[in-house]
Hints:
The termini of chain A are far apart. Chain A has a six-stranded mixed β-sheet, sandwiched between helices. Chain A has nine helices and ten strands. In chain A, helix 3 packs across helix 4. Chain A has helices spanning 40-47, 72-76, 94-104, 110-123, 139-151, 169-183, 196-202, 220-225, 230-239, and strands at 2-11, 14-24, 29-33, 55-60, 63-64, 79-82, 157-161, 188-192, 205-210, 213-218. The model of chain A has no long low-confidence stretch (mean pLDDT 94). Chain B has 235 residues and is mostly helical. Chain B is built from eleven helices and no strands. In chain B, helix 7 crosses helix 9 and helix 8 packs antiparallel against helix 9. The relative contact order of chain B is 0.15. Chains A and B meet through helix 2, strand 6 and helix 3 of A and helix 8 and helix 9 of B.
Amino acid sequence: MIKLVGVNKHFGLHHVLKDINLEVPMGQKLVVIGPSGSGKSTLIRCINMLERPSSGHVIVDAVDLMAHRAPVAKVRQSVAMVFQSFNLYPHKTVLENVTLAPIVVCGVSKEEATTSALKYLERVGLREKADQYPAQLSGGQQQRVAIARALNMHPKVMLFDEPTSALDPEMIQEVLDVIIDLAQSGITMIVVTHEMGFAQEAADRVIFLDEGSIIEDGTPQHFFTNPQHDRTKLFLSKILR
Amino acid sequence: MSEIIASIGFLQRGPFSIPRWEAVFSNMDVLWQGALVTLLVASLGLVMALALGTVIGVMSASQWKLPRALARAYVEFYQNTPLLIQVFMLFNAIPLVFPGLFIPVIVIGIFGVGMYHGAYIAEVVRAGIQSIGRGQLEAALSQGFTYVTAMRYIIIPQAMRIVLPPLTNQAVNLIKNTSVIAIIAGGDLMYAGDSFAGRYGHYGPTYVIVGLGYFLMCFPLAVLTRRLEERTRAA
């Protein structure tokens, strides 16, 4: 489904991703963990080409996005992303945020887009906010709208780039609950997070990134109880006190 | 009353004397006609400047090198040469390049201020686009928008709200700058005033009234600018 082959990313002299090889089968819930600066965000942003790798192959749905004239925009329609800073469209209402891309990008009719948008807003518990603007919502509510916006593209894959890191503590759980609920469905999910509880509860695979390399790869149980690498043990000892 | 007036020297003789004021007031129709030409050149020039400025502003904020370079060249050329010379060149060079082609002076005026202020508006538009956070473009791209549709639906609508106050400010400058077409006998308010005043030497009162005319055209826009700025701050 998603396959990264020999992916490297340089920012100037900084070697951020080092020969990443990763295969994520359909339906998997993958959680990416690692200290800040380890390359987690860059890794997830390479999957939908918001960062273009310096070398290697990014294959999504059998399409190599690194190929010349690859249909990147087309592939992105089925690979939705939820950002740390929400990035809702501030000049559009909640409902317009959720319907805009389906209508403009996918050519769905306005009625159809609205019907499904309201269904997804219901699912994230914000049906009654449909006519408000993002600035009128709390951070947690904005992030839930962002998830509804992503879902309304009917994606095969959902990428979450630290979806709760910009939230006030009391709003983290409401967003995590929505993501955990999504994890029950068949959708493929890749989640960069610092929420260890979420990783234990919702992931069926955890990878640990350190200095641009994947140094741990296994089930959550393996990761939390029997990590192989000293660097992982150190990280866990700091974070799980 | 008349003795008081009689005792004020500058109303008796010199550039602001009463007979000169009377002469100007009895020839106001000349100035009205000029004001109409100025309004025409200003409004059509503004339409052209807005269209050019938006296109060139979007080009100079674009991710591609060639449109960026072309836009840069345009902006630098028009911002760093005097409008007066640009209008003079349009007026004198076009007949050389296209002999026999007759272009009305008003059209040259519209192109002159349109192209000149297009460059300034392009810079305003560029700054507006660049003030929109990178996250907006990324969100749009991640949903499958192309660069162009992301600009059209997400970035430019947000940028336009920000640039509205500086744009109205540009409109004020554009109105005042239409006065340079007086040098090519543009028939505008400045030209009408100038040629009337020159005939009898009534420069003093004429320039006061012509200046007032420009003020009356510009002041409402200046007020609008301030209102829009307050609204932008409040939002």
